[in-house]
Design brief:
The chain is an alpha/beta fold and 272 residues long. It has seven helices and eleven strands. The longest helix is centred in the last third of the chain and has 16 residues, at 183-198. It is globular. The structure holds adenosine-5'-triphosphate and magnesium ion (MG). The site of adenosine-5'-triphosphate has 12 residues, from helix 1.
């Protein structure tokens, strides 16, 4: 059963942008085991939600369903009140493996995405928007002409994020985007993502999959723990205990929540 952790009252409550209703899912036919069963939750516009849970619990599957890359076996997912019918430019997706075409330069990769969203720009407008997107994620102009193989993992992931932000989706779906990076690069990209989100107007809605409790606490305003087929914990982090990199391991309330999250995650038996 889903439990809520001290959700405070908010004036001017934002609207629901994602509604997951009675969602069940299995890969394959009716006899295939259920991966997700009777999932229900809403995401408010501008929320930064992390899905946490053990390996194999269905985090990526749930994200793929919201992305429209899989169809629910039962139930439905609504975006702004309308059922998801497939992938769309309103949802940008960032995966762990960068998602850049290896035969195209970083600039060409970003331009390709821009062409989907803004089909009628001039050559110079595409270039300007691409360079803007690279700058936003802290990359300089030299990256524009480089192939992904000439970039470090952190640079590739910055490019992938630039590509997604460039098309201005209202929803960002991120599946362990920093999972393959070393600790220092990872911390830098976490900070970059927070800064990028802070300057967006209107605020982006982000769903971010991770199995790292500390990453979730640092990034998220709300954490949803997925257990065996179900949501087992759903907590909105009150503004007054929202951790920063500096306070993350000092604030007693954050440490309590951290312990609680770890306990919940470990309470499930792994499917591996
Ligand atoms: N394409 C597929 N076909 C069949 N089963 C799949 C497929 N993709 C995933 N699964 C199964 O669905 C379950 C959930 O997988 P999923 O990738 O969503 O888990 P996860 O929580 O993202 O795990 P991880 O943290 O390791 O990425 C697992 O048992 C997995 O084996
Ligand atoms: Mg996964």
């Amino acid at each position: 059963m889903t439990e809520k952790y001290s959700i405070g009252y908010r004036a001017n409550t934002p609207q629901k942008i994602i509604s997951v209703r009675n969602l069940s899912f299995s890969y394959g036919n009716d006899k295939s085991p259920l991966i997700l069963e009777d999932i229900n939750f809403d995401v408010l516009s501008g929320e930064f939600v992390c899905f946490l849970g053990q390996s194999g619990c269905g985090k990526s599957t749930l994200l793929r369903l919201i992305a429209g890359l899989e169809k629910p076996s039962e139930g439905e997912i609504l975006l702004d009140g309308k059922p998801v019918k497939g992938a769309g430019l309103d949802r940008g997706i960032v995966f762990q493996d960068y998602g850049l075409f290896p035969w195209m330069t970083a600039g060409e990769n970003i331009r390709l995405a821009l062409e989907q969203k803004f089909p009628n720009l001039s050559k110079s407008q595409y270039k300007e928007k691409t360079l803007d997107a690279l700058r936003q994620v802290g990359l300089d102009e030299s990256v524009y002409r480089k192939l992904p193989k000439a970039l470090s993992g952190g640079m590739k992931q910055r490019c992938a994020i630039a590509q997604v932000f460039a098309v201005e989706p209202s929803i960002m779906l991120m599946d362990e985007p920093f999972g393959a990076l070393d600790a220092v690069t990872r911390a830098r990209l976490q900070d970059m993502l927070l800064e990028l989100c802070a300057v967006q107007s209107p605020k982006k809605t982000v769903i971010f999959v991770t199995h790292d409790v500390d990453e979730a606490l640092l990034l998220a305003g709300r954490i949803i723990v997925i257990g065996s087929r179900k949501i087992i914990y759903d907590c909105t982090i009150p503004d007054d205990i929202k951790p920063t990199r500096e306070t993350q391991f000092e604030d007693i309330n954050v440490l309590r929540l951290r312990n609680e999250l770890i306990r919940r995650i470990n309470s499930m038996q792994s499917r591996d």
